[in-house]
Amino acid sequence: MPLAHNLTRETAQHRSRTVTLSDQSIHLDLTGAPTEAATFTSTSTLRLTCTEGAVSIDLVADAAPCVLLDGVELDANATSFEDSLVTVRGLTPGREHVVTVIAECHYSHTGEGLHRFRDPQDGETYLFTHFEPTDARRVFACFDQPDLKTHFAISVTAPSHWLVRSNGAPESAEPAAASDETHGNTTTDLTLTTFTPTMPQSTYIVCVIAGPYALVEDEAALSDGRRVPLSIMCRPAMRASLPSADMLRWTKAGLPWCERKFGCSYPWGTYDQIFVPEYNIGAMENPGLVTFNENYLKRGDATRSEREALATTLLHEMAHMWFGDLVTMPWWDDLWLKESFADFIGAQAASEVTEFDDAWATFGLGRKAWAYSADQLPTTHPIVADIPDVEAARANFDGITYAKGASVLRQLVAYAGEDAFYEGAALYFERHAFTNATLDDFLDALGEASGRDMTAWAQAWLQTSGPDTLEVASGVITRRGDRTRPHRFHTTAFDVEAPDASEAAAWHATGDAWLDLEGESDTLELPGELRGAVVLVDDEDWTYAKIAPSTETLELFATQLCHLASATHRATAWGQLWQATRDARLPAETFVRAALTQLADEPSATIVDGAGRFAIAAITSYLPDAASRADWAQAFWRVAIDRADASTGTDLPGVWRRLALLVAALAPSVDDELRALLDAHTPFEPGQDERWSVLTSLAAHTRDDDARRDVDARLADERTRDTTQRGAAQALGATAALGLDDTKQAAWQRVDDASLTNEQVAALVAGFTHPASVELAGAYADSYLDHLETWWRERSQVIASRLVRGLFDTQPNTEAAEAWLASHPDAPGALRRIVVEEVDQLQRRRRAQAVSDGSRP
Description:
Layout: H1 9-18, E1 19-29, E2 39-50, E3 54-58, E4 66-69, E5 72-73, E6 79-82, E7 85-89, E8 96-108, E9 113-118, E10 125-130, E11 151-159, E12 163-166, E13 170-176, E14 190-195, E15 208-211, E16 214-221, E17 227-234, H2 244-262, E18 271-276, E19 283-284, E20 289-293, H3 304-320, E21 327-328, H4 336-353, H5 359-365, H6 367-375, H7 390-395, H8 400-416, H9 418-432, E22 435-436, H10 439-450, H11 455-462, E23 468-473, E24 476-480, E25 487-497, E26 506-517, E27 523-525, E28 534-537, E29 545-548, H12 551-560, H13 567-582, H14 588-598, H15 605-621, H16 626-644, H17 652-664, H18 671-680, H19 688-701, H20 705-721, H21 725-737, H22 741-750, H23 758-768, H24 781-794, H25 797-806, H26 815-823, H27 829-850
Parallel strand pairs: 1-11, 8-9, 17-18, 18-20, 21-22, 23-29
Antiparallel strand pairs: 1-2, 2-8, 3-7, 4-5, 4-8, 6-7, 9-10, 10-15, 11-14, 12-15, 13-14, 16-17, 19-20, 23-24, 24-27, 25-26, 25-28
Helix pairs in contact: 2-3, 3-4, 4-8, 5-13, 6-8, 8-9, 9-10, 12-14, 13-15, 14-15, 14-16, 15-17, 16-17, 17-19, 18-19, 19-20, 19-21, 20-21, 21-23, 23-25, 24-25
């Protein structure tokens, strides 16, 4: 697939100053998609006015396209094609022109542009587009930047039995004939589908899906009485896993909720949602046509946590219909203006309109932990970041832009008030609908609604980096970090009667209050009513700061936390324990022991899932050696498998099942029990994805020929059982996980196979660096460093990033990678950023391992 040049902010801003785009039409001829054709014909017509005599239009294609100016085909003197830009000369400045670009564009197998998936089960072809941030140019000629919004009139020629959808509603469907034999077309039954022109939108959220997808239809009643058509789609092979009833319920509740909160009607007509295979991200907010990663569909029973993840993602993408789609950032510097808001609304709406009323606890144990991790890296950046080009934009879809931003918005609600927050949002939408707006525009609206000057708040929270740490000791909270940030949070003090660590503690709340740590202040004395034996600072997780309790409080959390009545308080305390573990203030063994002794009777599935995953991360990364990892993993497995077999009538057994299978990867001593799961379905019957998890663990534990013969036979049998493309990728990953030199060598040789899909690359990388056999990957440490620039130069940024980050675990220490950084100062910034981050994470692991107490379960 052709590579694309790195579009810069400077180029985009120049075009914004010189080009006015009136509208654009796009026709895609997909008649050859079911064949081996490598390309499709894309016809893009732009009606524009330019203040200069030439204009450059983005396009990724192998060969120069045919270009027409006002209906006349241009020769080589009037147009050129170089570095993914079509330059059109001979324009009359100030006059409206019509430019038509006809190109042969490539189908993708790596998730960018127009992705083509061939289903081995039904033999059918399925297509979908993904363009963020600048991959629309892989499918049609355009100005691939967010601030040149326009109306898009889209039409598609495709096989008649296919379902074809785009952002606009279908306007007409007429029989069509194949235009030529260019794409090896043998189909005569074709349909031309034309869609109503869209409202003004950016290129990155244009979307087309095509293929014989299964369809579920309904409609939603909105606040003003309008009826919005709804649909949910997936491949027929996944129809049995489609939670359409849940999704329709969440959608019908979410749309009117958003309308009320944002003071603005849903602006996009229809609301379609589709699950697509081999997707690079979780989901995408294309107006009226949201795409989801098919991995959200579980082959087996979905746990409560998995259902909640889908619900919050659905609501996150729904929020984008306003934040990002209706009002869009001019350039990727203000990426946070859509992603932070969507992350915030995803949790808030889930807590109010779905069954997941503890969504903020889930956020704290998941998304927020991701934010703290990203914000402590040497590459951290302000929420409002400097994004000079598209490579930097791709790298900034990170925990700061999403989860830190959402956390800071929650602090803003505590600071300014919920009513003022939503009133400000409503003013923002009213003033900037269907246009582009900046941070200043939002702050102006928020300031007007709240009656406060938001400039200082924005400077403190949005334009600084790194988390504050609030240390708690002797009745005083001490800030370590940025002195400008005002913190508002709730705190509760407890008197805890815990005569013995083995006995149940009694927690008695002695006082609670909202506290304000103003900017410019380093300390805050707790009022008298909060001077209890234990102080749970920010007990409802309203602010964004690492809380560092006293050593005595951490010890009490580690032994008596399960007896604290409030699930919200327990979730917050688990988060504080985890941060202490990551910061090497608490031995990893202490955290894992706390999980083993306290989660077994924890009634909240949210806490079991979040804290249980923390414990597995501690076992994987923060214990000092393979022997201790194996011992603690076996102990965790024993608790998890016992709870997974319990009949509680709750969501807990399913959560424990997932945790058991995750930790089994590190526990070779449980291999016989893993085989029993596969053969006798004891103590539970694993679903198909769970079966692959078990097989991958068995493969990673393999060290001799007898075990290899057993695993090879099981893998062959499983491929017979599971003939799906997902199964093929999982088999590739399981084979790469085998703990044998020759299989690691074979896996490494496949790393450079450009024919692998994005899903296969992900599985191969995960298997090659499986924690139970990763020591064998160290043989490729030098080769990894030698490959870095080649991967970045020859693969797409998505695939290259996956290889660079995923295979860093070949490095046994940081010295060689640090030397590479020192000797490659001019390597692409986004590539260096990944290596810098991975070096820092490895150093953090070493610090945590150094405070190990050496204990065993």
